[in-house]
TrEMBL record:
GO terms for biological process: L-cysteine catabolic process to pyruvate; transsulfuration. It catalyses: L,L-cystathionine + H2O = L-homocysteine + pyruvate + NH4(+). NCBIfam families: cysta_beta_ly_B. The lineage of its organism: Bacteria, Pseudomonadati, Pseudomonadota, Alphaproteobacteria, Acetobacterales. This is Cystathionine beta-lyase. One of its GO terms (molecular function) is cysteine-S-conjugate beta-lyase activity. Pfam families: Cys_Met_Meta_PP.
């Protein structure tokens, strides 16, 4: 039943680059291994001419003024771009800002934006409220749509197709090369929220134009940072994105950037362990009589599994669980409340395990092939695998008590 591919292979390959990139290239005697945190607003110049010349270097990840990014931010941008395989990266204030900033940069009144129906909820909210108010037309396509079906939703004024693969609540994996080809054949760009696939999916090798990251998740890894990243495939797109980011005042504080750089040093080994544990637990859950479906991309019955197998070099720590239809939402909530090691909370990608109900919190324009039953998602942390299974076991016992 389980795909036996090594889900941690991609994470392990990142070890060397994560350890050495984004650091001083030729350290002098007495240099610390970590870059210092550099805080500041004002940058001083020896002359007006020097200041004017530096002002022309806004695309070069250099210090001009504090609101245009710190040296710590610029080093993080270089490292994220290297991991994603893009030309340049803009660090922004949050994962949501990483979704909204490029939309504002590349869209104008009269344009059409086509989003996957499984898109991150706050991105949908921004599109429905802010973008519509600015005169942008918004529509959606089913996450498992074929090429012919996607083509039906493209309009003459479509400028962006925005997808997320896998969806962070329902976990459908998209055919990204197909979507890129559709977008490009109609003169549009493909945006991808690649947060789940960071480090194990190469967006630009598969035709993506703009890749979006919530650095809050895997890169920082310790549930203490709010930051995002937008990486692009070419210089023309970089100039558009960078100008918009400056005009919007988008950046992240140097302390958050430094914490993310620190988190990235251990991301490979953290996620290798978390990926192994997550697949082990997902496989265990798949055999539970209480469970109707486990939405883990590495399992063959997850929607889009064949695309995961073709395009990804590993798997993440986040997946979904759908209970049988015999259980109610109240039963599920009682089960979740009984968990001891899984904290109840949003976000994911940190060192700790989390659980979050997904039933009732998802807006969709199209139906789903998933069972109409209570569902939740699990973020698997660094706890002992058997301890987490034992916690789930006793939570299932609590579930049984609510139905007897």
């Amino acid at each position: 039943m389980t795909d036996r591919r090594n889900v941690d292979a991609g994470w392990q390959k990142l070890g060397t680059s994560l350890t050495h990139a984004g650091r001083a290239k030729a350290p002098e005697a007495g240099t610390y291994v970590n870059l210092p945190v550099e805080r500041g607003s004002t940058v001083l110049f020896p002359s007006i001419q020097s200041m004017n010349r530096k002002g022309l270097e806004r695309y070069d990840h250099t210090s001009i003024y504090g609101a245009m990014g710190s040296p710590t931010q610029h080093e993080l941008e270089k490292l994220i771009a290297q991991i994603e395989g893009g030309t340049d990266c803009q660090i922004v204030s949050s994962g949501l800002a990483a979704c909204t900033t490029p939309l504002l940069a590349f869209l104008k009144a009269g344009d059409h934006c086509l989003l996957v129906d499984s898109i991150y909820g706050p991105t949908r909210r921004f599109a429905e409220n802010m973008l519509r108010r600015f005169g942008v037309d918004i529509s959606y396509f089913p996450p498992c749509a074929s090429r012919a079906e996607v083509e039906e939703y493209v309009q003459p004024n479509t400028r962006i197709i925005f997808t997320e693969s896998p969806g962070s609540h329902t976990f459908e994996v998209q055919d990204i090369p197909m979507l890129a080809d559709v977008a490009h054949s109609h003169g549009a760009r493909l945006f991808l929220d690649n947060t789940w696939g960071f480090g194990i999916f190469a967006p630009f090798e598969h035709g993506v134009d703009v890749s979006i990251q919530a650095l809050t998740k895997y890169p920082s890894g310790h549930s203490d940072v709010i930051a995002g990243a937008v990486t692009v495939a070419d210089q023309a797109s970089w100039h558009i994105l960078r100008d918009a980011s400056i005009q919007l005042g988008q950046l992240a504080g140097p302390d958050d950037c430094w914490l993310t750089l620190r988190g990235l040093r251990t991301m490979g080994v953290r996620l290798a362990q978390q990926a192994r544990t997550a697949l082990h637990i997902a496989t265990w859950l798949h055999e539970r009589p209480e469970v109707a479906q486990v939405l883990h991309p590495a399992l063959p019955d997850c929607p889009g599994h064949t695309y995961w197998k073709r395009d990804f070099t590993g798997a993440g720590s986040l997946f979904g669980v759908v209970l049988n239809t015999t259980y109610t939402r109240q039963n599920m909530e009682h089960m979740i409340n009984a968990m001891r090691l899984f904290g109840i909370g949003a976000s994911w990608g940190g060192y700790e395990s989390l659980v979050l109900p997904t039933t009732g919190g998802i807006t969709r324009n199209f139906g789903s092939d998933q069972p109409d039953a209570p569902a939740f998602r699990l973020q698997i942390g660094l706890e002992n695998t058997q301890d987490l299974i034992d916690d789930l076991e006793q939570a299932f016992n609590a579930l049984h008590h609510t139905t007897t």
